[in-house]
Specification:
With 278 residues, this protein is an alpha/beta fold. 54% of the residues lie in helices and 13% in strands. It contains 12 helices and 8 strands. An 8-stranded mixed β-sheet has the order 3-2-1-4-5-6-7-8, with helices on both faces. The longest helix is centred in the last third of the chain and has 25 residues. The two termini are 40 Å apart. Bound molecules: NADPH dihydro-nicotinamide-adenine-dinucleotide phosphate (NDP) and (2S)-3,4-dihydro-2H-pyrrole-2-carboxylic acid. The site of (2S)-3,4-dihydro-2H-pyrrole-2-carboxylic acid (A1CAB) has 4 residues, from helix 7. It holds the Pfam family F420_oxidored. This is Pyrroline-5-carboxylate reductase. It comes from Lamprobacter modestohalophilus.
Length: 278
C-alpha cells in the first residue's frame, strides 16, 4: 500500500498537474498533504475547489516540508522554476520528480544547484482517470528508497514502466506522452466520417468513443496481440478488409512512424534548446 500521507508539492498547476492530482486523490492520497503553486489565480482557485488541496501563489509556501516535489511547468520555463525551487531546498533533500518533456536530468540538477534525488517521469493525461501510461527514469545517485517512492506516487495514475536510459524517455514521450492526442484525433476522424456517411452526430460520437474503449479494453485484457485481435474483426471479403486496405494504401503505418519520429525529434530538440539556455 502506498503511503497516502506523503507530502507532495506540484510546481505548476496546469493540465498535467491537475491530472496527476486527480489520480492521487482517487488512489486515496490525502488532499491535505498535497500542495500546488501556480501564478494564475483562476487555476489555483479551481484546483483548491475541485480537490480540496492547498494552492499557493508562491513556490516557497507550496514546498514547505514537502517530501516530494513534482515539476509540472512547461519546458520553456523549466530553468526559472528549477532555480526558484533549488534556492529553497534544504536537508533532508526531497525527492524531485520532473514530468517536463525533453528537459534532461543534467539540466535540472544544474538549475537546482543541489544534488537532490531526481526521477524523470513521462505521464499522460489519462492519469486523470488512473489509466495513465507512465515512463520513468531515475538519475544516477537516486537511492532505491526514493525510486520506490517515485514508483508509488506515479503508479497512482496508472501503469508504470522504467526505462534503462534517459534517452528512451524521448521515445516514451512520442509514444504514450503525446499518444492520447493521436487516439483522440482518430476518434474525431471516425466521428466525422460517420456523420459524412449519414449517421446522426450523437450516435457518431458515442459509437466512436465506445469503440475505442472496447478495443483498448480487449487489447489490455486479452492474451492476443493487437494484430491478432484485428484479424478477428476482419472477415475475409468483408467490410473491415476494405477499410484496412484504404488505411494501408494511404500509408497509415508509415505515417505513424513519421509522426512518432517527429515527436521524438522535438523532445530531443527541446532538450538541446533548453540546455543551451542554462
Ligand atoms: N499535457 C500533457 O499531456 C503532458 C505534459 N507533460 C509535461 O508537463 C508539463 C506541464 O504541461 P501542462 O500541464 O500541459 O502545461 P500547462 O501550461 O497547462 O501548465 C503549466 C502551469 O505552470 C504554470 N507556471 C509557469 N511558471 C511557473 C512557475 N515558475 N511556478 C509555478 N507555476 C508556473 C503555468 O502558468 P502560466 O500559464 O500562467 O504560465 C501553468 O499554469 C510540461 O513540461 C509538459 O512537457 C508531460 C506529459 C504529458
Ligand atoms: O505536447 C507536449 O509537448 C507534451 C509532452 C507530452 C504531451 N504533451
Amino acid at each position: 500500500m502506498p503511503s497516502t500521507t506523503t507530502r507532495i508539492a506540484f510546481i505548476g498547476g496546469g493540465n498535467m498537474a491537475r491530472s496527476l492530482i486527480a489520480g492521487l486523490i482517487a488512489d486515496g492520497y490525502e488532499a491535505t498533504r498535497l500542495t500546488v503553486s501556480d501564478p494564475d489565480t483562476a487555476k489555483r482557485d479551481a484546483l483548491a475547489e475541485q480537490f480540496g488541496i492547498t494552492a499557493c501563489a508562491q513556490t516557497v509556501e507550496a514546498i514547505d516540508a514537502a517530501e516530494v516535489i513534482v515539476l509540472c511547468v512547461k519546458p520553456q520555463v523549466a530553468a526559472v522554476a528549477c532555480r526558484e525551487v533549488g534556492a529553497l531546498l534544504s536537508e533532508p533533500l526531497p525527492l524531485v520528480i520532473s514530468v517536463m518533456a525533453g528537459v534532461t536530468e543534467a539540466s535540472i540538477h544544474g538549475w537546482l544547484g543541489q544534488p537532490a534525488p531526481l526521477v524523470r517521469a513521462m505521464p499522460n493525461t489519462p492519469v486523470l482517470v488512473q489509466s495513465g501510461a507512465i515512463g520513468l527514469h531515475a538519475s544516477a545517485g537516486t537511492w532505491a528508497k526514493q525510486v520506490n517512492l517515485a514508483e508509488e506516487v506515479m503508479r497512482a495514475g496508472g501503469l508504470t514502466h522504467w526505462v534503462k536510459t534517459e534517452a528512451e524517455l524521448d521515445t516514451v514521450t512520442a509514444l504514450s506522452g503525446s499518444g492520447p492526442a493521436y487516439f483522440f484525433l482518430f476518434m474525431e476522424s471516425l466521428e466525422k466520417a460517420a456523420i459524412a456517411e449519414g449517421l446522426d452526430p450523437e450516435g457518431a460520437r458515442l459509437l466512436s468513443i465506445q469503440t475505442a474503449l472496447g478495443a483498448a479494453r480487449m487489447a489490455v485484457e486479452s492474451d492476443e496481440s493487437p494484430q491478432q485481435l484485428r484479424q478477428r474483426v476482419t472477415s475475409p471479403g468483408g467490410t473491415t478488409e476494405r477499410a484496412i486496405a484504404v488505411f494501408e494504401e494511404g500509408g497509415l503505418p508509415a505515417l505513424t512512424l513519421r509522426a512518432v519520429a517527429a515527436a521524438r525529434h522535438r523532445a530531443q530538440e527541446l532538450s538541446e534548446l533548453i540546455a543551451e539556455e542554462q
